[in-house]
Write a structure and sequence with these properties.
331 residues, mainly alpha, Rhopdopsin 7-helix transmembrane proteins, two-stranded antiparallel sheet, 12 helices, GPCR_Rhodpsn
């Protein structure tokens, strides 16, 4: 095993638990914030919530796998794991990327001057798009279940080498690392163009200012999410492309670099939360409101406990005094 691969495996023992905690906390907070009534009224929030759910599921599978690799404990080298592990590790990132594409298209429709396009930006369309998109991702990645097979003699999960496997792998790379980023970029640029056109038009009615502000900041959050996704996802895509079509690139150093880029790609699932908080005042206000609410609940609990304790002591003293007066009267 190469020095780089050894170092990646060694650091994974410490890095993966940290990544796991960060992804869990940030995405759970993200879901809680986006479920707020103000943000939930926008279809884009539903796509962001679906992205967070996919990120959580993906991390729950990948982080343990990367951590246990150091000890040669690999779930993929089992009969069931050989089928499910590759499928889940490819379908969940694809589903998350598709949610960003759908969110980009929703922002494009929402910011368009066309009434017909704006009518496509609604919660009902978002819900159906999420369901059908998830099924489509599972269908596209279903061949992963059949191109991998567990070799009971070698106790290893092996991939079939034939023309169909090559065609599927090539299509997979084109879909995830070429078409997905291009789609995000195109809809992102069109959304920015639509927003600029709206800014050059007559100012909106005062009653719609809050709604316009929320929609505009959701569009900004989406553009940030797309930019971050490309930064973290493309390096691994380039290495994966090289390993697939250039057999000479499958050197120990490149394999170690590929494992390092897997860890780099995982940052895509928690970094946007901090950028949302910095860039969007609406998101930031909702986040701090959750923290204040939690702090307020704790204070209320403490206050109620103290009040109950005081009342108990106070009532007890009153009973004792009453009983003493009763005794003196009897005497």
């Amino acid at each position: 095993m190469s020095t780089l691969t050894e170092r990646v495996d060694q650091t994974s023992i410490y890095v993966q638990p940290i990544l796991f905690i960060l992804v869990m906390i940030t995405n759970i907070l993200n879901i809680c914030i986006l479920r707020d009534r103000t943000l939930r009224s926008s279809p884009c929030s539903y796509y962001f919530i679906s992205f967070s759910i996919s990120s959580i599921l993906y991390t729950c599978i990948l982080c343990p796998t990367q951590s246990l690799r150091r000890y040669n404990i690999l779930w993929i080298n089992t009969t069931v794991g050989c089928k499910l592990n590759p499928f889940l590790l490819f379908v969940l990132p694809l589903q998350a990327s598709l949610m960003l594409i759908l969110a980009s298209f929703d922002r494009f429709c929402s910011s368009s001057i066309s009434v017909k396009l704006r009518s496509m930006s609604n919660i009902r369309v978002a819900r159906w798009s999420i369901i059908l998109g998830s099924l489509l991702c599972a269908l596209c990645m279903s061949p992963m279940i059949f191109i991998y097979d567990f070799n009971s003699t070698l106790h290893l999960c092996t991939q079939y080498s034939n023309l169909l496997t090559t065609i599927f792998t090539f299509g997979q790379i084109i879909l995830y690392y070429i078409l997905v980023p291009i789609s995000m970029a195109v809809f992102g640029i069109l959304t920015i163009s639509n927003i600029r056109q709206q800014l050059n038009r007559v100012r909106p009615i005062a009653g719609n200012n809050q709604h316009r502000r929320t929609e505009s900041q959701l569009a900004r959050m989406l553009i940030i999410q797309i930019s971050v996704h490309m930064i973290f996802a493309l390096p691994f895509g380039i290495i994966y492309l090289m390993n697939t079509f250039m057999l000479s690139s499958r050197t120990p150093f490149i394999i170690g670099l590929r494992l390092a880029f897997v860890t780099w790609q995982q940052c895509d699932y928690f970094v946007p939360f901090f950028l949302y908080t910095l860039s969007s005042s609406v998101y930031r206000v909702k986040f701090f409101r959750i923290l204040k609410l939690k702090h307020h609940d704790n204070n209320v609990t403490i206050h109620v406990t103290q009040t109950q304790a005081y009342n108990t002591r106070h009532n007890g003293n009153r009973v004792t005094l009453f009983e003493a007066t009763k005794c003196n009267t009897a005497v």
